[in-house]
């Protein structure tokens, strides 16, 4: 590395993003004790719906490209499948718990809830899987984060809600969790639990610094999931859940495509070697498309 001594780190403004940024800064300081890594002092608006969240991500990427900071830490779930022309992914930090969790009044698990209980879930893939498993449930249309949903729960407006385990861990509210869903009940979204770290494509010094905190196994897992997503839905849109696990030079992957109303669910899984992943993933996606996923995904083009 050169004589450069300081790097400015940025993220979105919500509490979960700031916590993941802080963890990345700690890792960078450990890897490079002679360099200074500082959290960006400005904040981006915390979006209240999916469209706002996406605009905030684009705004953060734009700020990185405009040199408002040098490094951006972002939830991998939000990153589009298409590569940016101005920024580059330098690292994937160690993946957290990728599963979905259930938070409920009185600590009841999903099977214990009375019929027609009102629940909250913020994504079509979660809503569809909940309704496929429990068609009697009533899902509200409100979209929000953990704190928003917990407020509704505390006020008695809902009986429970679904969140992702890594957000719960970042907020240090594990004691609120009633149940960790297996993938058979609720397959997580692609790249859930992972954070990507971006730098500008022309900033070699930042890239070399950040690359030191890359977790190879986590990077391979998110790549496997993203490759699968490109084969089953080129735009990455739709009620799709997918989870990969990498051990050594081999991988296993399971996936689900579910109608948002819970009327249909198409599942599949496969395994293979990392150096032959592409054709294996393409085959799995093709089999699921022919088994009914095409009709479900047609509404999300």
TrEMBL record:
Domain Porphobilinogen deaminase C-terminal: 221-289
InterPro entries per the UniProt record, alphabetical: HemC (IPR000860), Porphobilin_deaminase_N (IPR022417), Porphobilinogen_deaminase_C (IPR022418), Porphobilinogen_deaminase_C_sf (IPR036803)
Function: Tetrapolymerization of the monopyrrole PBG into the hydroxymethylbilane pre-uroporphyrinogen in several discrete steps.
Catalytic activity as recorded in UniProt: 4 porphobilinogen + H2O = hydroxymethylbilane + 4 NH4(+)
Residues spanning the signal sequence: none
GO CC term (a single one): cytoplasm
Transferase in keyword set: yes
Pfam families xrefs: Porphobil_deam, Porphobil_deamC
Family, similarity comment: Belongs to the HMBS family.
GO biological process: heme biosynthetic process
Top-level EC class as recorded in UniProt: transferase
Domain Porphobilinogen deaminase N-terminal, first and last residues per copy: 62-206
The enzyme's E.C. designation: 2.5.1.61
Organism: Eiseniibacteriota bacterium
Membrane-spanning residues: none
PANTHER family: PORPHOBILINOGEN DEAMINASE (PTHR11557:SF0)
Keywords noted in UniProt: Porphyrin biosynthesis, Transferase
GO MF terms held by the record: hydroxymethylbilane synthase activity
Superkingdom: Bacteria
The protein's name in its UniProt record: hydroxymethylbilane synthase
């Amino acid at each position: 590395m050169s004589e450069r001594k300081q790097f400015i780190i940025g993220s979105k403004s919500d509490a979960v993003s700031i916590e993941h940024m802080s963890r990345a800064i700690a890792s960078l300081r450990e890897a490079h004790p002679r360099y200074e890594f500082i959290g960006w002092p400005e904040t981006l608006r915390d979006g209240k719906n999916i469209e706002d969240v996406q605009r905030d991500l684009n705004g953060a990427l734009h700020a990185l490209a405009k040199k408002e900071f040098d490094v951006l830490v972002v939830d991998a779930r939000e990153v589009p499948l298409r590569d940016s022309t101005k920024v580059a992914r330098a690292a994937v930090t160690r993946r957290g718990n990728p599963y979905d969790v259930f938070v409920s009044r009185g600590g009841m698990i999903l099977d214990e809830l009375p019929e027609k209980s009102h629940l909250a879930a913020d994504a079509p893939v979660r809503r569809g899987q909940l309704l496929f498993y429990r068609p009697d449930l009533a899902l509200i249309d409100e979209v929000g984060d953990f704190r928003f949903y917990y407020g509704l729960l505390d006020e008695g407006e809902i009986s429970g809600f679904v969140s992702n385990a890594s957000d719960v861990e970042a907020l240090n509210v594990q004691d609120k969790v009633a149940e960790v869903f297996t993938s058979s009940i609720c397959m997580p979204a692609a790249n859930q639990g992972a954070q990507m770290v971006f730098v500008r494509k022309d900033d070699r010094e930042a890239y070399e610094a950040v690359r030191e905190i890359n977790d190879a196994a986590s990077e391979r897992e998110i790549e496997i999931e993203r490759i699968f997503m490109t084969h089953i839905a080129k735009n990455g849109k739709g009620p799709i859940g997918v989870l990969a696990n990498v051990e050594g030079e081999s991988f296993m992957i399971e996936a689900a495509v579910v109608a948002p109303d819970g009327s249909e669910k198409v599942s599949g899984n496969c395994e293979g070697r990392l150096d032959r992943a592409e054709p294996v993933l393409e085959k799995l996606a093709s089999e699921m498309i022919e088994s009914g996923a095409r009709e479900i995904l047609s509404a999300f083009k």
